[in-house]
Design goal:
The protein is built from 7 helices and 10 strands. The chain is of the alpha/beta class and 227 residues long. The chain binds adenosine-5'-triphosphate and magnesium ion.
């Protein structure tokens, strides 16, 4: 297979959680890392599973996955995580701090980044995602929409080059959804591509370059969206 340097490539990827029950069926696809690619499809069609395979959280039973030319089978989750920011469908799975503010600062502090830089960046993200008024709250006690925004802020503070977002608009009201579209468009303008798993058609229409539709573990439709 050609290892394209501008894509995430899946070659004959198969996966099942249980032996004998395939959830991802022989998927072959190249996803351009500059695009905003939306993955749609009914509940249980395998969207989240595909995202986790691309992120290396799950490993394929057979087939290969390349991240800008590198075989992810040879990469640790940490190495992949330095290149891709991943938003879980249930964002509370990624919280481990006692306050909203600390949740955003956690990884940059571990990395030993400059204190002033962390303070400024955190303030910016608290503001951008309208989290200032709850910056001292306990992350697990937030509303669904607040959790979603916090999880995104905690991902973006690491300045990932690519994003995989599993239902990022879930739990967001119309206003906050608009803000998120603006934020993602701005990131895209800065050269950050993303794969967005979503059921939100208005969102897809506004933001996607390409739409992949899944059904029972296969990609059954692949089209460009002329924005
Ligand atoms: N940890 C797991 N163990 C066993 N089966 C699982 C597991 N996670 C998901 N599945 C099954 O795999 C299939 C695909 O699930 P997946 O979560 O990828 O679907 P999805 O397209 O993301 O659905 P939704 O739109 O509801 O989020 C489903 O039949 C689901 O029951
Ligand atoms: Mg899902």
């Amino acid at each position: 297979m050609v290892k394209l340097l501008d894509s995430i490539g899946l070659k004959s990827v198969n996966f099942g959680y249980i032996k004998g029950k395939k959830i991802i069926k022989n998927i072959d696809i190249d996803i351009n890392i500059k695009d905003i690619t939306c993955i749609i499809g009914p509940n249980g069609s395998g969207k989240t599973t595909l995202g986790k395979l691309m992120m290396g959280i799950l490993r394929p039973d057979s087939g290969e996955i390349y991240l800008v030319g590198e075989d992810i089978a040879e990469m640790s989750l940490g190495q992949i995580g330095r290149k891709i920011g991943y938003l879980f469908q249930n964002p509370e799975k990624q919280f481990f701090s006692n306050t909203v503010e600390d949740e955003i600062k956690f990884i940059p502090e571990i990395k030993g980044l400059d204190k002033k830089y962390i303070e400024e960046k955190t303030a910016l993200l608290l503001d951008l995602f309208q989290l200032n008024h709850i910056k001292n709250s306990f992350p697990l006690k937030l509303s669904q929409g607040e959790k979603q925004r916090l999880a995104l802020a905690a991902i973006l503070v690491n300045e990932p080059g690519y994003l995989i977002l599993d239902e990022p608009t879930k739990g967001l009201d119309v206003e906050r959804r608009k803000v998120l579209v603006q934020v993602l468009k701005k990131l895209h303008g800065e050269g950050i591509g993303m794969t967005v798993i979503t059921h939100d058609y208005a969102f897809i229409d506004q933001i996607s370059d390409r739409i992949l539709k899944m059904h029972e573990g296969e990609i059954v439709e692949d089209k460009r969206n002329e924005r």
